[in-house]
Amino acid sequence: MKQTKHLLLLLLAFILSVTETFAQAVGTDFTVGNIKYIVTAMDLTTHNNTAAVSYIGGTGAVTVPTSVVHPKNKETVYITESKEYTNCADGVTSITFSEGYTTMGKGCYAKSKNLTKVTFPKSFTTMNPGCFEANNKLTSFEVVSGNTKFSTNSDGWLLADGGTTLQAYPTGLSGDVTIPNTITKIAPTAFNVCASLGKVTIPASVTSIASGITTSFLAVGTYFEVDDSNPNYKSVDGVLFNKDVSELITFPKDYSGSLPSGKYTVPSTVKTIAGEAFSHTSTVLKAIDLSNTETISAQAFDYTSGLEKVTIGPKVNSIEDGAFLNCEKITEYIVDANNASYSSDEGIIYSKDKKTLYLCPIAKTGSYEIPEGTVTVKAKAFYSSKLSSIKFPSTLTAVEDQAFRFSSISNLDFGTNSNLSSIGSSAFGNTQLTGSLTLPASVANLGSGAFNYTKLKDVHIADGSKLEAITFQAFGNMPEL
């Protein structure tokens, strides 16, 4: 009996030990002082323990230390990076990263209200895109002497590659900026939502500027001026293009050029509107004519706050998913009658044969009945839509990912004799759907988070359903269910 009791106690001790070790495993959080960390490596044998910063709290000047002692196992843990999208408290005015810190994940330290300065150690080697977005008080970076990757200039800009790459421009600086001819490359998101920037002058030496989702110039400036001898880029009326003006890279956030009645007509040579090209553009831009444009990239127009009317020209043949996101004042899309790929109906963009619904203006309100014959609702077609009620046709077979996400719809009518077979991930996530919902028997595929974060009280699955599984969080985070 004593031996059995002893074995049980040993087993219990082992279970507690394993549980404690698991609690400190890779991916778990812990806090020391005002800084929160996440374990990235934990080896109690070799003591090769590392962690990433996941939140910086406190006020005033904050130093991220080289290492900390884990509060549970008392192991020394070395701080080597910041987890992507890490932020800091509003009261933090400066951050100093200590020796051993090497990597900053994408999207870190955005919209920090009082951050003025950031200091990097000589061990720092990697900054991912999207960091330090819209920090309106950030005026300087500093790099400890001896860093072989990064440096700063006398204006506090973060430079890389021996000073030839402009890695990050302090987003709190104001006024006009002239990029020196020592710079050959402007890194992705180097200018990341600068609220008070004026004219940007680009020299002939700059031969690499990122375009697209991680554009070098995200929501900045009043006017671009490119040296005429630059081999790769050109400015036309203050707008930034590639050299042959076939791609529109960036339209200035606070454009100071001429906009008759708030309308901008894209030059006839432009074939592509790059991602984020019109991101966060101020209310001065109210209408756009896409002229001979062929491709409108994803998020080309994102938070274009004043845009009300969009004219799709005859040559547009590719409108990528989410091309117009968070443009809350758009009331209609007008498609040229000679366009071979698209058409419009009540201001909504369809394919020419009306089988695919591509895009609904966010500002359109009330109820809408999708017409019979429509087969597919494309991804993000009604993203953030102000419509309150939707009725589907019997011909509809697919609602793609995030098609109605963040929309105001509170009532969804699948209609009679539904043939809907596929509902994409987050298709109706974060909407105002309420009351009861009966999922048609025809639905066979239900994406993850399809109805996540809605206010539905009852969900019924019709008799004879073809649905084989309820995917992850398909009906998650629904407190009224």
Global structural class: mainly beta
How many whole angstroms does the radius of gyration measure? 27 Å
Tell me, what is the CATH class of the domain at 365-481? Alpha Beta
**What is the straight-line distance between the termini?**
51 Å
The helicity comes to under 10%
CATH topology of the domain at 365-481: Leucine-rich repeat, LRR (right-handed beta-alpha superhelix)
Query: What coarse outline follows from CA principal-axis ratios?
Result: flat
CATH architecture of the domain at 365-481: Alpha-Beta Horseshoe
Strand content: 35-45%
Number of strands: 45
User: In this structure, how is the largest beta sheet organized?
Assistant: 7 strands, mixed
- State the CATH superfamily name of the domain at 365-481: Ribonuclease Inhibitor
Mean pLDDT metric:
94
Give unreliable regions as ranges.
6-23
Helix tally equals 1
Commentary on this structure:
With 481 residues, this protein is mainly β. 5% of the residues lie in helices and 35% in strands. The strands form eleven sheets. Strands 1, 2, 3, 5, 6, 8 and 10 form a seven-stranded mixed beta sheet that branches. A seven-stranded mixed beta sheet has the order 34-35-36-38-40-42-44, with no helix packed on it. A hairpin with a 5-residue loop joins strand 12 (150-152) and strand 13.
Key features of this structure:
flat, mainly beta, 5% helix, 481 residues, Leucine-rich repeat, LRR (right-handed beta-alpha superhelix), single chain, seven-stranded mixed sheet, 45 strands
